[in-house]
Every structure is written in structure tokens, then in C-alpha cells.
Write a structure and sequence with these properties.
The protein is α/β, with parallel strands linked by helices and 523 residues long. The protein has 3 domains: 107 residues, no CATH class; 293 residues, Rossmann fold; 70 residues, Immunoglobulin-like, CATH 2.60.40. Helices cover 24% and strands 21% of the residues. It has 13 helices and 22 strands. A 7-stranded parallel β-sheet has the order 8-11-7-12-13-14-15, sandwiched between helices. Strands 16-22-21-18-19 form a 5-stranded mixed β-sheet, with no helix packed on it. Strands 2-3-1-4 form a 4-stranded antiparallel β-sheet. Helix 8 runs parallel beside helix 11 and helix 9 runs parallel beside helix 10. The protein is globular and about 75 Å long.
């Protein structure tokens, strides 16, 4: 079943968020650059004593209070301070919309972070010659993949054609985030394969699912130039749009619609296509539902079409992995994410762990799925568009890349490479690494390393920064995850204990990815 129905209420929330973001005052954390080093640390004698016992520095920079001069400057200019944090060197505050730009440009302000479940962030201020000196607030997914490196390289998908096959684009022409597409005529064509007689593609709504494609488009290219908000990477790409999924019922004919849309886009020279649709079970006629075993990359009509598009037409096809991860009767990816050669995208949280709902790759496939992942609170449908925008930027930089080369660069730039797994693939792609790969420069990162733990060793210790959050993927073999967890380092290391069911563990730290191989007499 198409995953559209699973996120309908979330789509409505997202639309409401956009209107609220642009129209109302919001709460933010205002992070400050420095402190008055002559002020006294606000800690007790007992605190100092405890630190001495633990071998920690007795007085720390984070103990110093917030600079009162900075606080007064904010309050004197109608900024309502709600809370102060000396550890973060920040204050939470209500900032009127018209004051946002003023606050960002204050010399003592490092960044502002909206207090929002959508986790918008302000990217670091670039050098004077970069990005026209703009301060752009971006979605957390953009920050996670390193949008600033694309921006500073002048990459925004310009000159790239993107096809979007989805369930409708209702309201796209009224979205503040998509206004530039209509003002600049960046939408080159639209077709409705569900209702070919439709004339008003953006103003006529047939089902609530007609919002879905609009939000997908938002995640690929969304930006408010006036408010300096960016939620998509490919803001200067051109688009062809196709509606192939009706949303109010599920039947195999929708796969045929999808195939027709692919052919149409291929005929127009579209090389990069995003489809945040997927089919598994739950068809209106139960006899049409698939079985997990049929997610083999070659059974469904949509899989066959996708395979042809990739292998024979050279199309770069980015597909959402599916939202069945919490469904114990299914769990695995849906089709066409099962096709070898397509870029199947899963969803992660802020620290790159798989979101519970994100579908996993089946063990019976000989290739890895998903391929990569990125942050999304609201379904893999909104993770795939992020990667589509990422790919568009790479194509702008090197238009001659074929889909195999592009997929390889994408995976090699990701956080877990080369230790991919069936939870999040090779992890979260990184713009800096991807651009270095294109330019054939070194990453200036530590090379991934393998640590073999001998059979007589019961545990292994991994050096990390004190307080660092480390992500672990415990696997039964090279690629298939038994479970994932996160650990916060108490000191400067993380200790992992041997478990007989775990054969390998991938450790993701802030600096590197490490593969632990638990040696036994059988390996």
C-alpha cells in the first residue's frame, strides 16, 4: 500500500507549520559567542569537590554566567527572555518576526535555533564572499547533510531537470516555500494520470492525499527568499510533475500510471526522478496485496519499470524506503525501493539512528537496502526528497555523472561507509565529502577502521570525547542489524561487551566509523 495514508495528518501539521513560521512570532534559543572571563563561576564548593574526585577540571568555562551586557541589549530591544543557560551560553526568547534579522546580525550572537519540533537551525555564518552574506535558516535535514558546503559552492540544482511522481500537488501555487517555482516558471509540465481531464492541477483537490506531492516538492526545493528560510536543496532546478496515485483507494493500476509517468519524463530528458510512493500490502482488493517475499526487485510492475529506468534509460531514481518498520507483519521496504540500482532512502533521527517506522532491507536480497538515509520525523516520503536535492546539486557540479557513479559517490560520502547495513544503508550523505569525491580530493577524515576482538576478550574500549553520544549497530553478520542503540560516554571511552548473538558492531562516533568484529573459533 502506498505510504501516503500513514502521514496524512502529519502533512496537515506541516502545512500549518509553514503558515505559522511565516506569520507569527516564534521562540528561539539565542546562542552567544563568548562570556566575561572575569566573572565568578556559579558553582558550589561541593561541586568543586566532586569534580576533584572524578579527576575533572574544577572550574570550567560553562560554569561562568551569561554576559549581563548581552542580556540587557536583548531585553532593551523588546526581546522577551524566557530562560537562561550558562552551559549552552544561550537564552530562550520570543523574537518578533521583524526582529529576527537584527538578532542574527548582533556581533555577540553565534546562532539562533528555533524551538520547534521541526528542528530548524541557522547555519554558520559564511565568509563575506559566500552565499551573498545571507543568514539562512534551514531544516535540520539540510544541516545534517551539510547544506553550507553546497551553498558556498554555489550549488542549488541549477540546470537540472527533476521529475516528481506522487499523489497530487494541491496548493503548490499558494505555498510561500514554492513561490519561486511559479514566479520563475521552473515547473515545465504537469500530468495527472489518475484524472486526465483535470485542468487545475494545483487548485482542484480530490482527496486529502493531494497535499502529499506538494510537501515532497517542498522538501526538494522549498525556500522563502523573503524570510530567508530554506527547506530544500534544489531551489533552482526545473521540474516535471506527475500524479499517479489516487490516494482514496489502492489498486495495481496505480503502478501502471507510474510507469506511464516514467516514460513521459524519460521522453522529456529527465534524468533525476523522485518518487515517494511505495506498494506493499493493504490494497483495496486484498488479492492484489504483495507478500514480503515479492519485494525482490523484479516481481512488481513498478519494480520492473524502475529496473528498466535505471539499467536501460540511465535515470537516477530516488525512492522512499517505506514506513513499515514498526509493522511486525511486514517491516521491510516496499516496491520500487527493492530494485537494485535505485537509491532507496530511509529515515534517521538527529543522531543518525533509524527511525522506528523506517523500513529495513530484507535479508534475502543480495544487495544492500536502503542505500542511504537522512533525518525525517514524518516518514521516508520526506527523507527521499532531501536526497533528491542533494543529487541535483552534485549533477549541477558534474552533469556527466551516470547513475552508477552518482550512487557510488552518494554512498561513499555517507556516515557509515563502507560498513553499510539494512537499517540505514551507508548512513547520512555529507556534502563536503561528496564534493571532494567529485574533485578527487582527500576527505581529511580518519579512514574507517576495523577492530578485531579475540575470542578470549570479553569487551573492547573505544576512545571518544567525554560526553559524546555514540551510535551502535549490533549485527548478526556483515550487513543485517539485530538492534541499534546509543550510548553517552561518561569519560573518554565507550566499553562494549561481547554478546554471543552479535558477530559485528558498527560504532559511529563524531570523528569516525569503526567496525568491531567479534572473533570466535568459527571465523
Amino acid at each position: 500500500m502506498a505510504r501516503i495514508r500513514q502521514i496524512l495528518s502529519l502533512i496537515i501539521i506541516f502545512l500549518a507549520f509553514e503558515a505559522q513560521l511565516l506569520a507569527q512570532d516564534n521562540k528561539y534559543w539565542i546562542v552567544l559567542k563568548d562570556k566575561n572571563l572575569k566573572s565568578e563561576p556559579a558553582i558550589s564548593t561541593k561541586t568543586k569537590e566532586n569534580r576533584r574526585k572524578l579527576g575533572l577540571k574544577e572550574s570550567q568555562w560553562s560554569d561562568l554566567p551569561i554576559n549581563n551586557d548581552y542580556l540587557s541589549k536583548l531585553q532593551d530591544n523588546d526581546i522577551k527572555v524566557l530562560q537562561k543557560s550558562k552551559w549552552l551560553n544561550a537564552v530562550s526568547a520570543v523574537i518578533p518576526t521583524h526582529q529576527l534579522d537584527w538578532v542574527v546580525r548582533l556581533g555577540f550572537v553565534k546562532e539562533i535555533i528555533p524551538i520547534s519540533k521541526f528542528d530548524l537551525l541557522t547555519i554558520d555564518k559564511p565568509k563575506p564572499t559566500s552565499v551573498n552574506e545571507e543568514d539562512i535558516r534551514v531544516d535540520f535535514a539540510m544541516k545534517q547533510v551539510g547544506i553550507e558546503h553546497f551553498l558556498n559552492a554555489g550549488l542549488s540544482g541549477e540546470g537540472v531537470l527533476i521529475g516528481v511522481i506522487d499523489a497530487g500537488f494541491f496548493g503548490a501555487n499558494d505555498s510561500q516555500m514554492l513561490k519561486h517555482l511559479f514566479e520563475r516558471n521552473q515547473i515545465l509540465g504537469v500530468k495527472d494520470y489518475v484524472n486526465p481531464k483535470k485542468k487545475d492541477y494545483f487548485g482542484e483537490r480530490e482527496t486529502v492525499s493531494d497535499f502529499h506531492g506538494t510537501e515532497v516538492l517542498n522538501a526538494i526545493t522549498g525556500r522563502s527568499f523573503k524570510e530567508k528560510i530554506q527547506v530544500g536543496l534544489a531551489t533552482n532546478a526545473n521540474f516535471y510533475l506527475a500524479r499517479t496515485d489516487s490516494g482514496n483507494r489502492e489498486f495495481r493500476r496505480e503502478e501502471d500510471n507510474w510507469l506511464a509517468a516514467m516514460e513521459w519524463m524519460d521522453s522529456l530528458g529527465v534524468r533525476l526522478i523522485n518518487t515517494s510512493l511505495g506498494y506493499a500490502k493493504g490494497f483495496t482488493n486484498p488479492k492484489e496485496s504483495y507478500t514480503p517475499e515479492q519485494m525482490d526487485g523484479k516481481t512488481s510492475v513498478i519494480a520492473k519499470a524502475a529496473k528498466m529506468a535505471v539499467d536501460e534509460k540511465g535515470i537516477i531514481l530516488v525512492v522512499s524506503a517505506g514506513n513499515e518498520g514498526d509493522d511486525n507483519s511486514w517491516k521491510i521496504i516496499s516496491t520500487p525501493a527493492d530494485v537494485d540500482g535505485v537509491i532507496a532512502v530511509g529515515a534517521t533521527n538527529e543522531i543518525s539512528m533509524k527511525m522506528g517506522y523506517s523500513s529495513i532491507g530484507p535479508e534475502f536480497l543480495s544487495y544492500l537496502k536502503p542505500n542511504v538515509s537522512c533525518f525525517s520525523l514524518f516518514g521516508t516520503s520526506l527523507a527521499a526528497p532531501v536526497i533528491t536535492g542533494f543529487v541535483a546539486c552534485l549533477l549541477q557540479e558534474q552533469p556527466d555523472l551516470d547513475n552508477r557513479e552518482l550512487r557510488e559517490i552518494l554512498q561513499k560520502s555517507a556516515s557509515l561507509y563502507p560498513f553499510g547495513n539494512n537499517f540505514i544503508g551507508y548512513g547520512v550523505p555529507n556534502a563536503k565529502k561528496a564534493l571532494n569525491l567529485l574533485a578527487k580530493k582527500s576527505f581529511n577524515d580518519k579512514s574507517p577502521r576495523i577492530v578485531e576482538v579475540n575470542e578470549n576478550e570479553k569487551q573492547v574500549e573505544i576512545p571518544v570525547s567525554a560526553g559524546e553520544m555514540v551510535v551502535l549497530f549490533h549485527k548478526k553478520d556483515e550487513a543485517h542489524v539485530l538492534n541499534q542503540e546509543s550510548l553517552k560516554a561518561k569519560y573518554n571511552l565507550v566499553s562494549l561487551k561481547r554478546n554471543t548473538s552479535i558477530k559485528q558492531t558498527t560504532v559511529l562516533t563524531a570523528e569516525e566509523v569503526i567496525e568491531i568484529i567479534w572473533k570466535t573459533s568459527t571465523n
